[in-house]
Amino acid sequence: MTQLAIGKTVEVFFDGECPLCTREIDMLRRLDKNSRIAFTDIAAPAFDPAPLGKTMDELMGHIHGRTGDGELIEGVEVFRQLYAAVGFAPVVALTRVPGVSHALDFGYRVFARNRLKWTGRCEPNGACRVPQA
Questions:
Q1: Do 56 and 131 meet the contact criterion of CB atoms below 8 Å apart?
Q2: pLDDT value, residue 118
Q3: Regarding predicted confidence, which is higher, 35 or 122?
Q4: Is residue 48 part of a domain?
Q5: CATH number, position 32
Q6: pTM of the model
C-alpha cells in the first residue's frame, strides 16, 4: 500500500456526494492550517478503490482513512486522527475514555447505517444510490 505524501499525517476517504460529510470535510479543510490531511473524495469519477483493497460498497458503508505509515483505519478512529491532525489532540484523548468511546462507536454505527437515507439518497423503494468506481 502506498504511503501518504510528505508532511501528511492522515488521509480521509470521504463521500463527496454526502451533504453532511462534505460540511465536516470543509470545516476540517479550514482547520488544517498545516496541510496535514490528505482529502480523497471516493464519489469522484476518477476514484479507484482497488489500490486500497476495498470495494466501493465497503468504502461507502462507513468512513475510512489511512495513517502516515499506510495503515487503513475505519469508523470513529478516522475522526480521532483527523481532529488530532488539526490540533485537537487533548479533546481526542477524551474520546478514548471507556463509555465515551463506546457511545461514539455506537452513534457512528447508527449514522453510517442510515447516512444515505438521512441525506436523501435513497429511492422510495428503499434502494440507495452508491457511486460506482
A1: yes
A2: 80
A3: 35
A4: yes
A5: 3.40.30
A6: 0.86
